[in-house]
Amino acid sequence: MRFIHAADLHLDSPLTGLRQRAQERASHLADASRRALEQMVTYALEERIDLVVVAGDLFDTQAADFNSALFLLKQLARLSDADIPVALIRGNHDAANAMSRKVTWPKNVHEFGARAPATWEIPRLEVAVHGQSFPHREVPENLVLRYPAPKAGWFNIGLLHTSLDGRPGHAPYAPCSVQDLRNRGYDYWALGHVHGHEVVDRNPHVIFSGNLQGRHSRECGPKGFVVATVEGGRVSALEHVPIDVVRWARLAVDVSSASTVSEVCPLVSAALMREVQASGDRTLAVRIVLEGACPAHVSLAGDPTTLLAECTGVALQCGGDVWIEKVEVRTSHAAVAAAEGQTAAFAPIIKRIGADEAELGEILAPVASGLSRLPPEVLALLDVDGRNAEGRDRLLALDQASVLRRITGRVGA
C-alpha cells in the first residue's frame, strides 16, 4: 500500500503586502496553492495511490472565496472517481468554528469531527485512521492523550495538527511530546501545522509533510507532500515529493569585494544561476540579501530603487522565470568613515545621533508610530521594524546611506 500525507494547503492564501510589489505576477502567485494541489491529485491518480490523508489547514481563512471550496471539491471528486479514500482534519486556520460555510464532501472523503478523537476504518486496505479536527483556532490542550487505541493487526495512522514540542515561528497549538505519540501504539503519525518537511522520528514514523506551496520569503526551498510505502504492516519507504509551482528562495550574496553596483551584478547573477538550476522549470521568487563590508555600501543602501532595477535586469538574463521579490541590503557602512570631504564630516554626526537615546527617540518616534498601525503579518513580510533595537539599527544604517548618497553621488558610485 502507498499513501500520500499532505498538510497546510492554505488554499488562496492572501498575498499580504505582496500584491503591490508583485504587480502583474500577483495572480500567478495567488493561484500557486491551487495549482500545487491539482498537481498532487494528478500524481495520486497517475501513481495509483491507495489513500490520501490531509493534516489540517486546507483553507487559509474563513474569508476565503467560496470558489476555494468549489475548487477543492473538484479535486477531491477526481480522487473519488478513482475510488481513492481521503481522510482529513481541520487545523487552526480552518477550525470547525472558524469556517462560516459547511462543505459537503464527496463520498470518498471522511472529515474527523472536532468534539473528540475518532477512528475511520478502511477495511479493504486494513488501515485505521485516527484523528480530530480543531474545534476552534487556539487549542492549548494535548489532544493526543484522548486518541483511540490502535486496531490490532491493521496499519494505524494518527492524523494531527500540532506544534509538537515547539517549532520556531509556529504557535503552540495541540502541544505534545514524541513519547506521547509513541504511547498510542500507531504505525505512522501524519502531522500538520509546521510548514517545513521534517522526519521527527522513525520508531514509529512521526512526520511533518510541510506545506504544498511556499507563501512568502520565509518559506523557502522545495515544498510538497510525503509518499509512504507500507509493506508487511510497516513503513518500508518514505519520499518527499516537491510539487510547488512557485519556489521561494532567500539568497545571501557576499559583495564585500564590490566597489560599485556594477561589480555587485555578476555576484548576484552567479547566485541566481545556481538557484535557477536547482528549481527546475518552476517560477522562482527570490529575496536577495547583500552582505559584507564594501565600498559600494552607500550606493546599495542609499538608492534601493536603482538597486532593485539592476537586480531585476540581471534576473532577466538568467534563463528561468525569476521574480526578484526584494533586495535586502545588510552590507556594512564601515567604509563610509574613510570617505573624503563632506561625507567624512557628516558620518560622525549620524554616529553621534545614533548614540544619543533621547535624540534618537525623537527622530524614530514617528516611524514607530506608523509601524504600530500595521498588522504583525505585514511587518513580518516587510521585514522592517523600528520598535526594537535590531530594527532600529537597520533603519539608521539605511537612512545614513541615503543621506550620504544625496550629499555626494561619487561615494561607492
UniProtKB/TrEMBL annotation:
Keyword entries, A-Z: Exonuclease, Hydrolase, Nuclease
MF term (GO), any: exonuclease activity
Superkingdom of the organism of origin: Bacteria
CDD domains documented for this protein: MPP_Mre11_N
Transmembrane segments: none
InterPro entries: Calcineurin-like_PHP (IPR004843), DNA_Repair-Maintenance_Comp (IPR050535), Metallo-depent_PP-like (IPR029052), Mre11_N (IPR041796), Pesterase_YhaO (IPR014576)
Alphabetical list of Gene3D superfamilies matching this protein: 3.60.21.10
Official protein name in the record: DNA repair exonuclease
The organism's taxonomic lineage, starting at the top: Bacteria, Pseudomonadati, Pseudomonadota, Alphaproteobacteria, Acetobacterales
